[in-house]
């Protein structure tokens, strides 16, 4: 049957993209928040809530916008989130994932003066 807002192939294509995005977000969540039970659970709930709240969306254009937002969120999580561990009340130890580390970037400890 044909749904309002697009052809069957558009609807099927969107359905596949949505499912792939859902799985990708959960995989990224598991990598980014590894060993952090609270963050893992909070991210799981948020992802599931967002997808559930838009489950009945039929507009192809709106679905594509939501897919774009979800993809942007996944990229942001994957490339920008770094875990920190409290070592004492004043210290936080950062634990970057391998994929976040960039090699061959020169580091300058001394600040430079703007001219």
Automatic annotation (TrEMBL):
Keywords on record: Chaperone, Mitochondrion
Location in the cell: Mitochondrion matrix
Pfam families: Complex1_LYR
All residue ranges annotated as the Complex 1 LYR protein domain in the record: 17-71
InterPro entries to which the protein is assigned, alphabetical: Complex1_LYR_dom, Complex1_LYR_LYRM7, MZM1/LYRM7
Keyword Magnesium: no
Signal peptide: none
Keyword Glycoprotein set for record: no
Assembly information from the UniProt record: Interacts with UQCRFS1.
Role according to the record: Assembly factor required for Rieske Fe-S protein UQCRFS1 incorporation into the cytochrome b-c1 (CIII) complex. Functions as a chaperone, binding to this subunit within the mitochondrial matrix and stabilizing it prior to its translocation and insertion into the late CIII dimeric intermediate within the mitochondrial inner membrane.
Family: Belongs to the complex I LYR family.
Protein name: Complex III assembly factor LYRM7
Gene from which the chain derives: LYRM7
């Amino acid at each position: 049957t044909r749904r309002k807002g697009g052809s069957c192939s558009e609807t099927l294509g969107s359905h596949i993209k949505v499912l792939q995005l859902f799985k990708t977000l959960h995989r990224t969540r598991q990598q980014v928040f590894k060993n952090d039970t609270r963050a893992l659970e909070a991210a799981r709930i948020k992802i599931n809530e967002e997808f559930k709240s838009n489950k009945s969306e039929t507009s192809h254009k709106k679905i594509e916008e939501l897919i774009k937002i979800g993809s942007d969120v996944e990229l942001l999580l994957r490339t920008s989130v770094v875990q920190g561990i409290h070592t004492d009340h004043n210290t936080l130890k950062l634990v970057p994932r391998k994929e976040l580390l960039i090699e061959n970037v020169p580091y300058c400890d001394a600040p430079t003066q703007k001219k």
